[in-house]
Design a protein that fits this description.
It is a single chain. 30% of the residues lie in helices and 18% in strands. It has 11 helices and 17 strands. It has helices at 38-43, 57-64, 97-107, 124-127, 131-145, 162-178, 197-209, 228-246, 250-255, 274-286, 327-333; strands at residues 46-47, 68-75, 85-86, 90-91, 111-117, 149-153, 183-189, 215-219, 257-262, 264-265, 271-272, 291-295, 363-364, 369-372, 375-379, 383-384, 396-401. Strand 6 (149-153), helix 6 and strand 7 (183-189) form a beta-alpha-beta unit. The longest helix has 19 residues, at 228-246. The protein starts with 37 loop residues before the first helix and ends with a strand.
Length: 402
């Protein structure tokens, strides 16, 4: 993801509490809470806490009843190395910003999972020497934030690297063994037949290592999908892939299967509305699937009128909605009825002045700014002749209308 998820494996087993039930009664010295029920981690939508105009998680919790968030993404340092960072730039070891977000969520009775990987950037599985060192890097994240759940988002370009995937799956198995009760999800790309060749190779690697997470989730978007019917068909096909790979029966495969959607307009111009989310939610619950999540809460609000429906944004959905409409489907998956009051839509921000116009011939380095299409953009890394907004996962971060 990005984008772009109830049984543990052989090393440990967890009994699911009643959906929506929590056990938030104590905190340890690091501020970690006791765990929520696994169903909440299975329902946690993705939230970028440092990029894409992060929304206030406390406001989302108040408006929807949501208790769990999937924070994204932990990567290797941009300059190389085997230590965890947020987005390749902010070292986990010295982090206070994300810790503050987590503290806010926990103070209101919620909790977080952390997602590692995602689309683009350099992953720790690529830079660490082996599974043990990869696991040691991720253990730093678990220990620092007192995590009860973690997500391995394995997709392009990392999942095309056999050695990197071996490290990631091996690390996941080690973490599962060393952290009893840890909720582990593995997320990968979705295709019409479930998942593509590289996704299937990842499943075979998990089988060869004897690793079974709580679930394998696919992302049925950005692959020629068109609404909920195409997504549920892909989930049905992925269930068959899980059966044939692991020798599971249909019910066992569904119990290890998850869905990770994209709300609103996808990177390739597909549209997934609230009605589509309800259809997939009905499919997931009726088949006793283990996970239902989406990318992302940063996008779970309506765009400004000039942008609505016209492009894919990291900060809004490009469909008509009230703020946090899509989060309520996660709340329903957790077994809780969201509040019936309609939240107030996020106010339209006052446009700022435009930076110098983007040039196809200019070279931009990290934090350089330019304007394009009525928005200001900030470069995430070195770039030249890459159009701002062409892809949410490209080198430009949308700073809003100007």
């Amino acid at each position: 993801m990005r984008p772009l998820r109830a049984c543990l494996g052989a090393a440990a087993a967890v009994t699911l509490a009643a959906a929506g039930t929590t056990a938030l009664v104590t905190t340890d010295a690091s501020g970690a809470t006791t765990a929520l029920s696994n169903r909440w981690y299975a329902a946690a939508p993705y939230l970028m806490p440092l990029d894409n105009d992060p929304p206030d998680p406390a406001a989302i919790m108040d408006a929807t009843g949501l208790k769990a968030f999937q924070l994204a993404f932990v990567l290797a340092p941009n300059g190389g190395g085997c230590s965890p960072t947020w987005g390749g730039t902010a070292a986990v070891s010295s982090d206070t910003a994300v810790q503050s977000v987590i503290s806010t969520i926990r103070a209101k009775g919620g909790d977080v999972s952390v997602s590692i990987g995602g689309y683009g950037g350099t992953k720790l599985g690529q830079t660490c020497a082996d599974a043990a060192s990869t696991a040691a890097a991720y253990q730093q994240v678990i220990t620092k934030y007192g995590l009860h759940a973690i997500d391995f988002d394995l997709e392009e370009p990392e999942y095309e690297n056999t050695a990197a995937i071996r490290n990631e799956i091996g690390a996941a198995k080690i973490l599962q063994q060393n952290n009893p009760g840890l909720y582990v999800s593995v997320t990968t790309a979705g295709t019409a037949d479930g998942t593509g060749w590289f996704g299937k190779q990842m499943l075979l690697e998990a089988k060869s290592q004897g690793f079974t997470p709580n679930n394998f989730s696919i992302m049925p978007f950005d692959g020629g999908f068109n609404g909920a019917a195409s997504q549920t068909a892909a989930l049905t096909n992925f269930n068959s892939v899980l059966q044939s790979t692991f020798g599971w029966d249909q019910a066992t495969a569904y119990a290890h299967e998850g869905f990770s959607g994209m709300n609103g307009r996808s990177d390739t111009g597909e549209y997934f509305t609230q009605a589509d989310f309800q259809t997939v939610l009905d499919y997931a619950t009726s088949h006793n699937m283990d996970r239902f999540t989406f990318w992302s809460l940063n996008r779970d609000r309506q765009c400004t009128p000039a942008d609505n429906g016209g492009r894919t944004s990291g900060t809004c959905s490009s469909v008509a909605q009230n703020s946090w409409d899509f989060a309520k489907y996660s709340v329903k998956f957790a077994g809780v009825t969201p509040p019936t009051t309609t939240p107030t839509p996020t106010p339209t921000p006052t446009p700022t002045s435009c930076k110098a116009a983007w040039s196809a011939t200019a070279v931009y380095v990290k934090d350089d700014e330019a304007s394009y299409g009525g928005h200001n953009w900030k470069a995430k890394w070195w770039t030249q002749n890459e159009v701002p907004g062409a892809s949410e996962w490209g080198p430009w971060q949308d700073e809003g209308a100007c």
